[in-house]
Structure formats: structure tokens, C-alpha cells
Amino acid sequence: MHxxxxxPGGAQKDLRAQLEEIxxxxxVYVLGLGNTDRSxxxxxxxxxxxxxxxxxxxxxxxxxxxxxxxxDISEKGDGATVFFVDAANLxxxxxxxxxxxxxxxxxxxxxxxxxxxxxxASILEKAGSRSAVICVQPKxxxxxxxxxxxxxxxxxxxxxxxxxxMTARDR
Amino acid sequence: xxxxxxxxxxxxxGDGGITVTLDGKKVKSVTLDIHEGPRLxxxxxxxxxxxxxxxxxxxxxxxxxxxxxxSALRGLEKALxxxxxxxxxxxxxxxxxxxxxxxxxxxxxxLALPDFLGYPSAIAMLNDYPDDVKRAxxxxxxxxxxxxxxxxxIVHGENPIIGGFGKYPTKKALEExxxxxxxxxxxxxxxxxxxxxxEYPAYPEEDMVFMSVNAPKKQYGFAGDSIxxxxxxxxxxxxxKKLTNERVVSHSFAxxxxxxxxxxxxxxxxxxxxxxxxxxxxxxxxxxxxxxERWLMNxxxxxxxxxIEMLWSLEHMPDVCDQLASMDDPPNAQPTRQTGTGTGxxxxxxxxxxxxxxxxxxxxxxxxxxxxxxQNLDDIExxxxxxxxxxxxxGKSDDEVRLKLxxxxxxxxxxxxxxxxxxxxxxx
Lengths: 171, 428
Fold this sequence. Notes:
The complex is a heterodimer of chains A (about 170) and B (about 425). The model of chain A is unreliable at about 5-10 and about 110 (pLDDT under 50). Chain A has 5 helices and 5 strands. Chain A has a 5-stranded mixed beta sheet, sandwiched between helices. In chain A, about 35% of the residues lie in helices and about 15% in strands. Chain A is of the alpha/beta class and about 170 residues long. In chain B, a hairpin with a 4-residue loop joins strand 7 and strand 8. Chain B has 14 helices and 12 strands. The interface of A and B includes residues 68 and 115 of A.
């Protein structure tokens, strides 16, 4: 789960509109983070998986290798936008969705398991790409537990907003 | 009395902290406090079938996932009287090479290097060292790829099974790995040169004892049926309890290990010290060039050892791929008994990992897992204590002491999640 400190996030307005504001005119990529073994912690991965069928070359998750995907996008250097999606403890009601802009990512998630999102966002920025983190407040992160109802609804909401944006860019 | 604290040790996996308790200028104690809650995985798998255990067990960790799976497989196969075919054993070797490249690239560059170069994190390092950071990401990506090809996916792959594999890598996939590993060797050589050029502070230096598996055929490797000890002794893995002597301490959720009542080290430096003469290729030449007696006393050299080992892994992959490509896919070996005991030992990137099983009538009665970090914790405290004593005697500031203590702890590449954060200076 994403460990954000005092994530400011966007105002609770229409999610699609928030994503439109952040995205460049280039390709939009989705990178789902988290651990599906821990119920709501897998929200990001579930979003990416839901979009994978329609956008196989632009929807990725932990299972595809996050750092490698970021490296590939950065090396293209074509002004893309990457939306990371992850469960994050925002101190809000379960299912709350917040969009944290690149300059506001202050994660402390530097572990032996994965390169921190802040570093990946910096690499993307240096390559001329934009990024942001779509955060979903989990209700539960029990091992082998089920995804909670409020988070399941939020996953659908995030998928719809991203699908709309990615489809519009394809036209 | 006062305390010097690192409440939350960054750049390690899991939740831990370091407390240094001082009485005047005298260091009373240094403790690595493990706050991460116990996982109780060993209890969870009791009563399970072995084939279900290997799906649950790797969930202990998302980076050593394949080491956990492989060690479990070795223990379970021994217990069930299964001898996997040669191609299965070699494919497992390839998956371990991939995991080694993936994990060592992340630890050396993203977690350890910023300390040596004076940056608070790899993020801060990016402006001045963009090529090095990208090189590390290329290596990690490739390590992940090898893990996915061999195990089925990047994290928690289900392809390695009891007696063999669900599906063997195709010749095309092996050829891609062979070519790419060869292409990445110059990157790994640059990494070794970078880590060899760093200044390794002498503060933590103290006599050490090293343990690692003894890879078969007198080769360097990541699995074996006996344990080499740097005092010249060798022990069967089934005697792992006599080597590790696990005990509980009050300040930690992780168990501790002592060998003959003394701390010991597992990890890449231990493997190099016990099996370094078996290296080949440029890894052998660079080990010979950069090895010194200081490696025997200073845990910080584990970083350089990891860089050399990553190079060896890449250099070794083409040969393994060639051999695998020449073999037909064999049928998987089947259990010859339903009751038995067995211990598996493999070298996870951060050290020796034991999985012991007792099976009765096809169900697991006892599971015992001893992780590398649990074995290293006493050794980490020992080297942090001498570091704190020497630095404080020289009048170094609390901040300087904190940083060096964190460097010592991070050098072991600890996985606290596996072992079950990190510095507090307390004055009395």
C-alpha cells in the first residue's frame, strides 16, 4: 500500500476532469500498484487488470514489472502521461479517491521491494512525461481477504474515468 | 543517560528502528528493534498439502519470493523422496540468477549507494547520477524478466512445482535471456567499478564468522545440501538448528540466531568469502582485484560483494540457457512417500534461507522457516555497537553516528517483513 505523508490530493470534483487537467496530449498509461493478496491493497492492480483487455500496451500492473515499464515509457520520450493507481492511507472514508500530482508525491515507500513512486515520477518528468498517483482509501488490507464494497465501487469509478480518457485520446 | 534514535529506518523492507543507549560516553547497548508484527505463516501451513504450501509460503516476501519457493521445494521434495530431473534443477538455477540480479540491483543502487555518495535517497541522486539510476533499473527489469520466464510471473510465480515445473521456458525465451544477459555484462562491470571506488568507513570492523550454502560440484551457486562456515567447518543442512540456535529477545518480533554463542553473517559477502574462489569470468578477476582482508571484518563490503555477484549471475546465464536449450522437457518427478522430513537451504540475495518440513500421511505437521535477516540481526547489532563506540569516542555528532549506524544496518540488505524499522540513542 502506498505510504503517503499528508497527501494533499485534488478537490473532490469529477475524477475524469481532474485526470484531463493533468494529462498531456500524448499517450496515457496506467500503472496499477499494490498487493492483491491483501484485499483492498490490490485496488491499483485490479484497475489495471480491468483496462488491460482494451489497452494492452498502456495498462500495466505490478505483475508486468513497474520499473521496467516506467523505463520503457521514459525512453520513448514522447510526452506521455502515467497514472499510478494505488491504495493509500489518506485518513478518509473507505473508497475515497484522491489524485496526487507529481510535485505533491512525498512517499516514504523506499523498500527492498520496489523503486519508490516518487523516483519513478522524477524519471518520467526528466524524460518529458507527466505523472500523478490516483489513491484509493482502503477499508481493509487483511491477508487473503476480499475487496470491500466501497473500494470495489471506487475501482469501477477509477476504471471508468481512465477508460474515458484513454478512449478519447485514441480518437 | 540519553538515547540516540533512528525511529524509522528508511531504505529497508519492513518496520524497524535502532536504539543506542548511552551512559555518559559509554555505549550501554545498541538494539535493532523490530516493530513488524509476526506473520505466523508456519502455523498457517500446518495441515496443508505440500502443493498448497508452496503457494502460501512465498507470500512471506515479494522480492525473495522465488528463494522462499525454492527453499520450500527443496525441503518438501526431500521429505517426500522426490528427485527432480536435471532440467528442473537447472531451470531453478536460472530463476535464482534472475532473482539475484533483480534484488542486488535494487539494493546496491537504490538503498545503499545514496549513503556513500551523500544523498538522502536515490530520488535526490537522480539529478547527478541519472545514468547510474537508469542502469540499475535496466538490470532490475531484466532480473524481473528472467523471474517471469522461469516462474510464470514477476511476483509469486506458480510455475516451479514439486518434482519440476508446470512448463519449461521455450528455446526462444532462453535465447532472449542468453543474448540480453550478455548485453548487460558491461553495465554490471561498471557497477562493480563504482562500488569498488567507494570509501568504506572502518568504524564497524570487527571479526566476523560467515555462513553460506556449499553449492554442488565445487561451483559458485545459490543452493546446496551443506553449509560452509568460514572457520573451515561444514555442516549438513539437516543440522540447521545447531547452526542457527534461534532464540527470542524482548525488543524484537524477530527471532535471533547465534553460532557457538556468537553472531554470524549470511549474505553475498559470506558467499564470496566461502565460495569466491569458485567464481569465473570477469567476476573472478574483479573479486581477486578488489578483495581484501577488510572484507573479513567489515559488513559494508556486502554492497561490493552484491555488485560482483550480480555480474557473475549475468555472466553465468548464457551457459545455463545453452544447457537448458539442449535438454528435452522431462516428466516431473513424483513423491515416493507420504511421510518424511526434509530441510531445504538456498541463498536468497540477503543470505541463507532454511525451510524445514515434517510431513505425515501427505499433510504438513511441522514447518520451520529461518530467514537470512533473522540470522543477521545479532551481527548487525554487534557491528552497530562498535561503530557507535568508536565514533562517540572520537566526538562525532549524533547525526554522523546515526548515518553510519543506518549504513551498517542497510549493508545487510535486511528484509524485516521476512524476519517478521531503525536508530534511537538513549543516554542514562
